[in-house]
Amino acid sequence: QVQLVESGGGLVQAGGSLRLSCEASRRIFSISTMGWYRQAPGNQREAVATITSSSTMNYADSVKGQFTISRDNAKNTIYLQMNSLKPEDTAVYYCRARAPFSFSSNDRRGYWGQGTQVTVSS
Question: Average pLDDT over the chain, rounded to whole?
Answer without folding.
Answer: 96
